[in-house]
Design a protein that fits this description.
This protein is mainly α. It has helices at about 15-40, 50-70, 80-100, 110-130, 140-145, 145-160, 175-210. The radius of gyration is 20 Å and the shape is globular. The chain starts with 13 loop residues before the first helix and ends in a 6-residue tail after the last helix.
Length: about 210
């Protein structure tokens, strides 16, 4: 608990806060555009991971855009980057599987946003925006499997016919494919972990380097 006699933390620079809020509204807008376009043209878009992941990304990034309001403008994002990392690896999974295993096309608006634009802007947010990534922990990437694992549970119960032969629960290759996908997500998570740590190095060095008196 913060000592009541201590002054409150300073407010973030107004320009930085405005820029981050605007950027995260753009990210949320991309996610909602893809999801909304899919709902408009598909008879039943809900079972697909692409739509579920983009809806989740839209909600998360809308929440991040509004986060400064909850802190009185003192910070533009939560101290923990866990949720951003989890959403990023999920969208990279969506994009990677669609473009490779499914040989998907991006001619339609919903497909372009869901499988290219939104994953790229969420990745850019992790790489370029904010400093909370410096707080990522070595154990975060294994926990980022929670969303793909939750979808797998849903998939096994609902059995939607979405992914052709490469993800058929009746196939002898199903378990191997699931393991491969989960390892891919885990590897992607550790790649994001490494990027975050490298990005944080200059800032951390600046924090500990003593000022030379003039």
């Amino acid at each position: 608990m913060r000592d009541s006699h201590l002054p409150p933390p300073p407010r973030g620079h107004a320009g930085v806060l405005a820029g981050v809020v605007a950027w995260r509204l753009v990210v949320a807008g991309c996610a909602f555009t893809g999801f909304g376009a899919a709902v408009a043209v598909m008879d039943d878009p809900w079972p697909a991971l692409s739509q579920q992941a983009n809806l989740l990304a839209g909600v998360v990034y809308l929440g991040l855009a509004l986060y400064p309001l909850a802190t009185g403008g003192r910070t533009h994002e939560p101290a923990s980057p866990w949720l951003r990392g989890a959403v990023c690896v999920l969208l990279l999974l969506v994009a990677g599987v669609y473009q490779t295993l499914m040989s998907g096309d991006v001619d339609d608006t919903y497909s372009l946003f869901e499988h290219v634009v939104t994953p790229l802007v969420v990745l850019a947010d992790w790489v370029l925006v904010g400093r909370a990534q410096a707080n990522v922990r070595w154990w975060h990437p294994p926990t980022w499997l929670v969303f793909p694992a939750a979808y797998l549970g849903y998939f096994l119960v609902a059995r939607p016919s979405l992914y052709g032969g490469f993800l058929d629960p009746e196939s002898s290759m199903f378990t191997g494919m699931v393991v491969m996908l989960m390892l891919g997500v885990l590897g992607t998570g550790y790649l994001l972990y490494g990027i975050a740590k490298v990005k944080a190095l200059p800032w951390q060095v600046a924090q500990v380097t003593p000022e030379v008196p003039r």
